[in-house]
Amino acid sequence: MRSSRKGALLAIVLAVAWTSHAAAQQQTQGFALERFYPSAPGGGWLVMDTLDMRGGFGGVAGVTLGYAHDPLRVATTDGSQHLTVISDQAFADLGFAATYDRFRFYLNLDMPLAVGGNNGTVGAYSFTAPTVNPSATPDVLSDARLGFDARLVGDARSAFRLGAGAQLYVPFTGNPSYYLTDGTYRAMGRVLFAGDVGRFTYAGQVGVHIRPRDDAPTPGGPQGSELLFGVAAGVRIPLPGPPNTSVIVGPEVYGASAFRSFLGTDATALEALLSGRLEGTAEDGRQYRVKLGVGAGLNPHFGEPEWRFVIGIELFDHSTDRDKDTVFDSRDACPDVPGVRTKDPRTNGCPKPPDGDGAPAGNAAPGATEPAKPE
Amino acid sequence: MHRNARWLARALGAALAARILFADAPARAQAGPPAAHEDAAFDFMNFLSQHNLHDINQESWNAYGQVTYISSWHPAFSAPYTNANGSINSLVPNAERSYTGSATLFLGFRLWPGGEGYFVPEAIEEVPFSQLRGIGGAIQNGELQKTGSPQPQLYRARTYLKQTIGFGGDKVEKTSDPMQLAAVVDARRLVITAGNFTILDVFDRNSISGDYRQNLINMAFMTFSSWDFPSDARGYSWGGTAELYWDDWAFRLGRITPPKNPNQLAIDFRLLKFYGDELEIEHDHKILGHSGAVRLVGYHNHVDTGRFADAIAAFEANPAKNAAACTGFNYGSGNADAPDLCWVRKPNDKLGIGLDLEQHITEDIGVFARGMYSDGQTEVDAFNPADRSIAYGLIAKGSAWHRPFDVTGIGSGLSWISSIHAQYLAMGGVDGFVGDGHLRQAAEGVFEVFYSVNLLKALWLTADYQYLWNPGFNADRGPVNIFGTRAHAEF
């Protein structure tokens, strides 16, 4: 009987102690962990942007697949406790863009393929790892990204190009516990630059990430708005075959630093990728890029992994109009001679014939009437 | 009151049908919603095409979109009991409002010769009647999903690849539409689709009835109410289909993923272990110059579900195996005097066969009918708890009264449950989203009439009325008058 009372008392004491301990623990919330912000569809590099929009109306479709290992490791300030909250993060990002001349409007939808890790406690904070995989969460999407870029200085191939862009992240998912969203709107404004000098190519960016979410002093979480920065440089190696087919190899270094503790090690993320891409950017026919990158976080912070692997494919096309007659070359029977629009594909875009017989008078399409000889 | 209201609803429907049937023959496109790419309609691809920025007859890509808001309201209705003995699945007899808002992008790309890729993100917000409980096969709004919430949720509705392999024959022109790139293809061809889609993208493509965003809103007209096609809780599946088109014939086969637990979002990808197999044979024809089609649809599910007879036997053998004591996946019933399927789930089979008919009787008026018989031995896995169903109706465009983009229609649907299913519900069991605690078995029925007014060639405003009787297959409840409005825009 006495032993039973002692046992009950002990159980109560333990329960109270556990309750007190539990009350002291603060359960953390998830947030938008990913800091690999892919370049806009058609942007060329994996993160940076070539700013080579050109031609008439065109479109881009791209998919980027990636895996990050240990992208969220948290520790107490004295380093006595560590926890890898997110150990695996894989995603597929689908991007779509419309381009016209020097402008680009785009949409990215990021599909998480896997997010998982470990539950645990670090200091006074308790972390819960999500279980995101195609079976448990078959259709979840991260924040949608809407963006607009414009090249302000230079043309698509010039040695120095300067542009600006804005992005809006729309938090449709609404469940921060997946580590896919902050649960708030976010925005980015960036100044972009790029250029090609012989075989040397480069790109970079400086911008501001307006991020309302500030979890400080929770370790390993967002700390409000950030400065974005990055630079890339590479060498273009022409390949035999169709014109403008080449391989570009070079590093990309990028990161972000919260203004709250600007450039402080506890508020700055820095990552490097060695990227390479095969691209065919000839004006006629569909254009493509196949991109590959491997890298690692240089200054561990949230979103910067132990290592990362990324592969991307872009298909893009745009109409060109060499003779500026508003009939695009793909449908212009006389692409180098200004003409008029007709319903006949044999004459569409060709000069109106002087005798009104409907036959083109310029450099006709194959099979059409022979061009008139010059006087 | 009950009979009077039903008579009035049927009389109104008959009068409207007569008005439509005897109207002057219109001279526009086929019945159903206006084609999105029609020259006179507004949409993004047409806009580009008209400005010579896009080849709308031979597309390498296209992009369409839609936004739809549907609001429904039902006044109080008669019900001698609700959620009896701790059951949880009754339609609440108090007045209720329900709504859905959805926005969708349909993105398509030609990847290589014959190869197409499609990606469809969608956002939806919703509030159903009674947490979507209490209605069997005639849920008043086809947009409603089993996992919806009042907060908008963005999700990936579809991501799939399609490969077309031509075998010759006549040439068929495929127009530019959502999830269809314009192209000229062989009348004899094999089309393989793989990825994440809804089986309704491929099967039961009734051109007159099926799109709750543009014509009849009730789910009874979306497809066969008793077709328990496997899917996640939103209606989408992973898997593959093969379609062989041979002139006027089409043969379709498909295998798709079921949910891990009935009616839930999580998917079981073990396609060799659990699956839904679908089969369809279609023949297209013309009668008096007007097109029509006949489709024979069959399905076989091999999924982890419970048989009603097993649940009853388990409960009778041991009353401790009741609904309130479930330890496995269950719907939360608190009825300790009722059997529950949670005790008997194991790999089970479900079979069904159905017939789908569509026929245009003028260029702008079409009729449709669907009927399906499922075996009715196991619980609902993914769609509706109905075991047998029929639905029929008429859709017309407004050319006869010089409103060619207006759409109107009437339809009626009936669905039944098997005797063992009824016995299980009568004992207080719950099956998915039905189970009032008691049951006086009857066919659940719905009558619907709507009119959509077109504005600006891209926006439709709809007034809708539905008359629902015996909700949840229970003659003790209802009838229910449901008044609805819909705003739908395409771009």
> CATH homologous superfamily of chain B - what is it?
Carbohydrate-selective porin OprB
Estimate percent helicity of chain B.
under 10%
Biggest β-sheet strands, sense, barrel of chain B? 16 strands, antiparallel, barrel
Strand content of chain B: 35-45%
The helix fraction of chain A, in percent, is under 10%
The number of E-state strands of chain B comes to: 18
Number of domains of chain B: 1
The secondary-structure element order of chain B is HHEEEEEEEEEEEHEEEEHEEE
**Spans where pLDDT lies below 50 across 5 or more residues of chain A:** 14-23, 356-375
Count, helices of chain B: 4
Termini separation of chain A:
124 Å
| Helical segment count of chain A | 1
Count of the domains of chain A? 2
- Radius of gyration of chain B, in Å, reads 22 Å
Under the CATH scheme, the architecture of the largest domain in chain A is: Beta Barrel
* Straight-line distance between termini of chain B: 44 Å
- Main β-sheet, spatial strand arrangement of chain B: 1-2-3-4-7-8-9-10-11-12-13-14-15-16-17-18
Mean pLDDT, all residues of chain B: 89
- CATH fold call of chain B: Porin
Secondary structure topology:
The complex is a heterodimer of chains A (375) and B (491).
Chain A: H1 2-24, E1 26-27, E2 58-75, E3 82-100, E4 103-117, E5 120-122, E6 125-127, E7 144-153, E8 161-170, E9 186-197, E10 200-210, E11 226-238, E12 245-258, E13 268-280, E14 287-299, E15 307-318
Parallel strand pairs in A: 1-6
Antiparallel strand pairs in A: 2-3, 2-15, 3-4, 4-7, 5-6, 7-8, 8-9, 9-10, 10-11, 11-12, 12-13, 13-14, 14-15
Chain B: H1 2-21, H2 44-50, E1 61-74, E2 96-112, E3 115-127, E4 153-166, E5 171-174, E6 183-186, E7 188-197, E8 237-246, E9 249-256, E10 275-287, E11 290-305, H3 308-317, E12 346-360, E13 365-374, E14 388-398, E15 403-416, H4 419-426, E16 444-455, E17 459-469, E18 480-490
Helix pairs in contact in B: 3-4
